[in-house]
Design brief:
The complex is a heterodimer of chains A (about 325) and B (about 325). With about 325 residues, chain A is of the alpha/beta class. Chain A is about 35% helix and about 25% strand. Chain A has one domain: Rossmann fold (3-Layer(aba) Sandwich), CATH 3.40.50. In chain A, the strands form two sheets. An eight-stranded mixed sheet of chain A has the order 6-7-8-3-9-10-12-11, with helices on both faces. In chain A, strands 2-1-4-5 form a four-stranded antiparallel sheet, covered by helices on one side. Chain B has about 325 residues and is α/β, with parallel strands linked by helices. Chain B is about 30% helix and about 25% strand. Chain B has eleven helices and twelve strands. Chain B is globular, with a radius of gyration of 21 Å. Chain B starts with a strand and ends in a 6-residue tail after the last strand. The chains are: A alpha/beta (about 325), B alpha/beta (about 325). Chains A and B meet through helix 7, helix 8, helix 9 and helix 11 of A and helix 7, helix 8, helix 9 and helix 11 of B.
Chain lengths: ~325, ~325
């Protein structure tokens, strides 16, 4: 982990509700190296977006409570930073592409104005540059995301553009100024599969070419398999398994990972499986023990009493499950 | 020889924008569905697949063509449907959050079709509701729950239950699992397949998920910008896709195993934007993105041709 630029240690994030704290993120350990592409895979409500939003501290502090944990960016704890240092991280180091490009873009400003806004906020340009120079940066960023006729697009409003274009604009906004880490929150979900394919290939090429690190949040195992080098599988606020992509698919260990893979309909046909019985747990009063226990086909006595520790099975392949504790 | 339950001939649904411009959402579509079939309708957003469903149900007024259901031609004068149609044809929508009345509980939601179609006498309604909840494997306690207090998958089961109330022959399922996680999707799909068999239903299943389609349909049709590109029995569709758009789509699906990778057609890199349905390209509407286009493709719109048993393609490459 010597070159981990982001290192999340035992992060717990709770939401303040009138019924008590919803203990959504329950001790997450996560790291990304320089130039690495990492996937965070999990279903709705598992806490993946909450974890990533906590990195940039964009969840409203009145509803958000972080009782434990560290988020180290280049060995400095983001959670302990003062406002100015945090702003520097947001301007210069980390950027996030959100899931719904329509919601992320301001409908009353042109795309060009919004790009200029991002460039100015980042403070990563020559102070002597005039508006034209900044526009040139914007045009170059739009060209990088394979949009033809950039000048016309910059003068357009978001509602005049298709979903695929808007998503590419959001990607351009994240990459227009140099950033070390890009967090992409399900960047293709709202789009058609052919456009999604284009966006993913584009993202991968840009990240590799510019040597950036990428965290890709997705609920689709297929998408993660195509894009990232290493995958974290998350369930109900815990990382249940992490492995290099190839290892995860050839030898999934955790019962949830296996169950999830079985649920994915196969192109080879053969019908649909029965799914994973049960529901995600109550976050306000979670039962003791492993959070997956009530739904686990391999549950043992100890699973409902104690939380499993994460152990390393082979190079980089870790799992949090009592099935593997004695081996 | 099963009889045809749905016959669509040259169906058109246009939405006017102003005096001269139209959105040609459905632009001359023909197909049929036989009793017991599960016809899959696949396409990306803007292809017209939901519009076909809504036009069939009478939610949109058709601009041309003919719809025949259960041997009866549906009038084109207006989009009214008679009571028998409404009883025999049902629809399950994509977003259960907006298709279930949040002010009613499950009992009220399911009572309505039972009363309207006089399925049972008023004193037997509760009993019937329990029977239907049992059919979709929901517990009796759901009777008094409101849509807000149940999860997405359960809401969708309530939508399916509602469709079953009138004892229909044909159900349109418009992306019923697109908003659900894959673990819940599996449960819903299994439920639908079980009901299809037990109640001898016929389905039209709409989705953009080609892997899911492979496992549920008996026949697949693919749409692009309001027109059908290819129709074939499921296995044939996936084994020998002919239309360049079908090949592009199939080669872009993210899969999770090497065996599946090997089943995909050779990678066709998707380029270009999907044109706006207001400004459909001349000739074949796909030519702007087609890697096999010829001169004729920019001028003439191809016709649907049967290239092998039950396998239809609309493309100049196969005349």
């Amino acid at each position: 982990m010597n070159d981990a630029i982001l290192n999340i240690k035992n992060l717990k994030v709770w939401y303040n509700t009138y019924r008590g704290y919803a203990k959504v993120v329950d001790g997450v350990n996560f790291h990304v190296g320089t130039g690495e592409k990492v996937g965070l895979v999990g279903e709705s409500g598992c806490g993946k977006t909450t974890t990533m939003k906590s990195v940039l501290r964009v969840i409203d502090s009145s509803i958000n409570h972080i009782p434990e944990g560290e988020i180290l960016y280049r060995d400095k704890d983001i959670l302990k930073m003062n406002y100015n240092d945090l702003q520097q991280i947001r301007k210069k180091s980390i950027s996030m592409i959100s899931q719904a490009p329509s919601a992320a873009l301001n409908p009353v400003f042109t795309v060009g104005e919004q790009l200029l806004d991002v460039i100015r906020y980042s403070e990563q340009y020559n102070k002597k540059s005039g508006k034209k120079d900044l526009m040139d940066m914007a045009v170059s960023a739009i060209k990088d995301v394979m949009i033809s006729d950039p000048e016309r697009i910059l003068k357009s409003y978001p509602h005049q553009l298709s979903g695929g274009m808007k998503q590419r604009i959001c990607i351009a906004m994240s990459l227009v100024t140099p950033r070390e880490l890009l967090i992409a929150d399900e960047p293709g979900t709202a789009l058609d599969v052919t456009i999604q394919d284009q966006i993913h290939r584009l993202l991968r090429a840009l990240v590799e070419e510019k040597g950036r690190s990428l965290i890709m949040i997705t609920h689709s195992l297929g998408v993660a398999r195509e894009l990232v080098d290493r995958i974290y599988v998350m369930y109900a606020g815990n990382i249940v398994e992490v492995a290099k992509t190839k290892d995860l698919f050839s030898k999934p260990l955790h019962p949830y990972t296996k169950g999830l893979m079985e649920c994915v309909p196969r192109l080879s046909g053969g019908g649909v499986t029965t799914g994973i019985y049960g529901y995600i747990p109550n976050y306000i009063n979670p039962a003791p023990g492993c959070r997956f226990c009530p739904r686990c086909p391999d549950a043992m006595d100890i699973c409902s009493k104690e939380k499993p520790q994460t152990i390393e099975i082979s190079d980089g392949h870790k799992v949090a499950c009592f099935k593997y504790t004695n081996s | 020889m099963s009889k045809e339950i749905v016959t669509i001939k040259d169906l058109k649904t246009y939405f006017p924008i102003d005096k001269t411009k139209f959105v040609r959402a459905v632009d001359g579509v023909s197909f049929n569905i036989k009793e017991g079939e599960i016809m899959g309708l696949v396409g990306e957003s803007g292809s017209g697949k939901s519009t076909i469903a809504y036009t069939f149900m009478g939610m949109y007024k058709q601009s041309g063509g003919e719809i025949v259901f259960n041997g009866k031609t549906i009038t084109t004068k207006d989009n009214k449907r008679d009571m028998l149609f409404k009883k025999d044809a049902q629809i399950v929508f994509q977003d259960p959050g907006s298709s279930l009345n949040p002010y009613q509980d499950v009992r009220q939601i399911l009572s309505l079709p039972l009363k309207v179609h006089k399925i049972v006498s008023p004193d037997k309604i509760d009993e019937k509701i329990l029977e239907i909840l049992d059919m979709v494997e929901l517990p009796a306690s759901f009777m008094y729950k409101s849509p807000n207090s149940i999860g997405g998958g359960e809401k969708q089961l309530v939508s399916v239950a509602r469709a079953l109330c009138s004892n229909p022959k044909f159900i349109i399922l418009d992306e019923p699992t697109s908003s659900l996680d894959v673990s819940i999707q599996a449960k819903i799909i299994n439920m639908l397949l079980k009901l299809h068999k037990e109640k001898k239903l016929t389905y039209m299943f709409i989705t953009h998920d080609l892997s899911l389609m492979r496992n549920i349909s008996t026949k697949v049709a693919i749409m692009y910008l309001g027109k059908m590109c290819e129709v074939a029995p499921t296995e044939e569709f996936y084994k020998s896709p002919m239309h360049p758009y079908t090949q592009m789509l199939l080669s872009s699906i993210p899969v999770i195993s090497e065996e599946e990778e090997a089943l995909k057609p050779k990678k066709v890199v998707s380029t270009g934007e999907i044109p706006s349905p207001v400004d459909i390209p001349k000739g074949c509407s796909f030519h702007t993105r087609c890697n096999q286009k010829m001169d004729i493709c920019c001028i003439e719109d191809p016709m649907m041709n049967e290239v092998s048993a039950e396998h239809f393609v609309r493309c100049h490459l196969y005349k």
